[in-house]
Amino acid sequence: MNLNVEFSDLTFDNKKRTPQEFLEIANQLRKDIINSLLLAKSGHSGGPLGASDFMSVLFFGGYMYYDSKNPNLPDRDRFVLSAGHMAPVLYSVLARAGYFSTQELSTLRKYGSRLQGHPGLDVGLPGIETASGSLGQGVSIAVGMAMSDKLIDKNNRKVFSLTGDGELQEGTCWEAAMAAGSHKLDNLCWIVDNNDCQIDGRVKNVMSIYPLKEKFESFNFDVIEIDGHNFLEIINALDKFNSNHTNNIQKPTCIISKSYMGKGVSFMLDDYKWHGMPPNVEQAIKALEELK
Q: Of 291, 240, 219, nearest to 25 (Cα)?
């Protein structure tokens, strides 16, 4: 059985949209993820598929200020994917935003590709703000960025960082949370992709991180819990963060986005075994049929 993998040249601008429009973008991201992982024959399926809804709103809903034609714009907002293994969804977002050709998505994890298994700065891929993948590292850097912006440069930039929930088993995450809360970084939006799955089981069974909301609140965060597949809830949460930032509430924001690993693909849905496994040809064909 063969599958002719094609990546369209479709790109999206950054503006307010309806939930249906966001769903269409999210499913385009999911198709990119399936296709690129199929060609790579390695990589992570479940988390990127589950985070696609949130990422579609964040990057294509007018919530981040960026210019894909000028990726080093001094006053741009920044996004740090701390859960670096979820890179396929970030690469799809950046390609669909116009940072590089969508055809480059076919090179994921191949020798010499700029689309490495985890985001890196060493290959010159536009849109990547820092290397990440060692869990806890990315969000710690994001907190440092937010500290610099708010306390030293005193500018109006925003910093967004996405962690997995299994990632919160790393102590460095909580050191970062303590610093963010202590320094009252209302320019920081910490997004937790809370699918309760990690590579070897349920987060709550491997090493529980719960109660999550109360932990972030104890570090002086404004915590917003949402259904990570409900576009209205995602929109409202990001609106609340923007309001917090504009009104200088002296607290960082944490959005706990409750999601399902493998969302959009029936046989991957809520199954931790898809954390680090790519689809084969037969599975990719079925997944792409479901995403039409």
A: 291
